[in-house]
Write a structure and sequence with these properties.
The chain is mainly α and about 325 residues long. It has 2 domains: about 180 residues, Orthogonal Bundle (Tetracycline Repressor, domain 2), CATH 1.10.357.140; about 130 residues, Up-down Bundle (Four Helix Bundle (Hemerythrin (Met), subunit A)), CATH 1.20.120. It is built from 15 helices and no strands. α3 runs parallel beside α15, α11 runs antiparallel to α13 and α14 runs antiparallel to α15. It is globular and about 55 Å long.
Length: about 325
């Protein structure tokens, strides 16, 4: 039997010389691919896609639709949302490449490191954003596509330019972060056109995501305030050296997070009951408790705990929401 080694040898010296070159090309292609993916902020893109699909599941549970077309529609919704979110993130990295280079936590990104050309990232961003909106328009409808476009535009044309100008940018930035559930909800809503965005089921998810983001991002800003100062960003902790306003704001929004997490159950009682309320109430109290500790100490360790607490809180909440909804809709 002829082995790979004997094939290479029998082909003469050229094959031996070409093998390392081929391996080098594969390594370069992998490196380029990894850099392109990194520009899309895959963690944020994943969260945006998940929250869009949560909106889809909650909306779909209120209507009777055969499972196969529903799954195909969910796939289109997820792909379209992911593409447009990835594109917006790439454009954001293109716009902030000079500031990223001055911050330790972002200096290793592809553009500051020179691993990609700026025009390539900008082209990637606009291409993915457009493609994502087109996918949503073609398969999910005009309203989901326009909501996705609003996410992209508000993120890159409003939030990103405001970040070095005012600490209020954090609150403005909560808008594009809270809209994705409405992409999924409007995809399967039985209400016509824009009326789908005024249903309390979808609005409750929008409110929940809006409130959740504030303590989450302010905790990050407190932990990395020196880094943000180097980058020239006007985050609240830079105007609040003692941390009193920042920690108080985190506490207030963490307190508001509890009723915000209970709101979906109050407007969709046929889908969410005691199991979800238990998870929402307990996890919300834990986040509030961590926030109060930060208010007392104003330490980086406590801010980090609020940050990680919020990271655990949201997935638990969404998993409980989706799990109970599916069980009630399809198994009870």
């Amino acid at each position: 039997m002829e082995t790979a080694a004997t094939t290479t040898l029998s082909a003469g010296p050229d094959a031996a010389q070409n093998a390392p070159a081929s391996a080098s090309r594969r390594i370069k292609a992998d490196t380029l691919w990894n850099a392109l993916v990194e520009c899309t902020k895959p963690g944020i893109t994943r969260l945006v896609t998940i929250t869009s699909l949560v909106g889809f599941v909650m909306g779909a549970s209120l209507r009777e639709t055969p499972i196969t077309p529903l799954l195909l529609l969910a796939l289109a919704c997820g792909v379209g949302t992911a593409l447009s979110a990835a594109g917006a993130n790439a454009i954001n990295q293109y716009m902030e490449r000079a500031r990223d280079a001055r911050m330790a936590r972002t200096a290793q990104r592809p553009l500051p490191r020179g691993r990609l050309a700026p025009h390539a990232v900008a082209t990637l961003g606009w291409g993915l954003s457009l493609l994502g909106c087109l996918v949503l328009w073609a398969f999910c409808g005009a309203v989901p596509a326009l909501v996705s476009a609003a996410c992209v535009v508000s993120y890159i044309a409003v939030y990103t330019p405001l970040k070095p100008m005012t600490s209020l940018a954090t609150f403005v930035g909560a808008l594009p972060g809270a809209l994705p559930p409405l992409i999924g909800w409007s995809t399967v809503s039985q209400s016509p056109g824009w009326a789908s965005l005024l249903e309390w089921g979808g609005l409750s998810l929008f409110i929940l995501m809006t409130v959740w983001q504030i303590p989450h991002f302010l905790a990050i800003a407190w932990m990395y305030r020196e880094d943000y100062a180097k980058g020239g960003y006007a985050v609240l902790p830079l105007a609040d050296p003692t941390g009193s306003w920042t920690s108080a704001t985190i506490c207030l929004w963490s307190a508001a997070l509890i009723p915000a997490t209970l709101l979906p159950a109050s407007v969709m009682p046929e889908r969410l009951g005691l199991p979800y309320l238990t998870v929402a109430g307990f996890s919300g109290v834990v986040v509030l408790w961590l926030s109060v500790r930060l208010f007392i100490t104003r330490g980086r360790r406590e801010a980090r705990q609020v940050f990680f607490g919020s990271i655990v809180h949201l997935p638990l909440l969404l998993m409980a929401m989706v799990a109970e909804t599916i069980i009630r809709a399809y198994f009870l």
